[in-house]
Design brief:
Layout: H1 11-103
Length: 105
């Protein structure tokens, strides 16, 4: 001990202390880097999950629209067939009625 009551350290003790502090600092830096990497990965995973949810929403919308288009096409075909049938039956009615009226004279 010195006169002021403080202990004097040898060069070896100082070197060992510096080495221990350096190792602890490197471990802390590695741990902080690891935590930062985890946070970055978690953030990317959360963004990707949000994108996938949005994609699923739009896929569902597209499927619903495709079903609506298919139903509209089927209804249109039915309406065309119904109109053609009505036209044919109306033509037959007019033809038969006209033949009966003209033939009846």
């Amino acid at each position: 001990m010195s006169e002021s009551g403080t202990r004097l350290y040898s060069d070896l003790e100082i070197d060992l202390l510096i080495e221990e502090i350096s190792e602890a600092a490197l471990e802390a830096i590695e741990q902080a880097a690891g935590e930062a990497a985890k946070a970055a990965v978690l953030s990317m995973v959360e963004r990707e999950a949000a994108i996938l949810r949005e994609l699923q929403h739009w896929r569902s919308e597209a499927e619903n629209n495709a079903l609506a288009i298919h139903a509209a096409r089927q209804a249109g075909r039915k309406n065309i067939l119904l109109a053609a049938l009505i036209g044919i039956l109306g033509g037959l009615a007019v033809g038969v009625g006209g033949t009966l009226i003209i033939g009846g004279r």
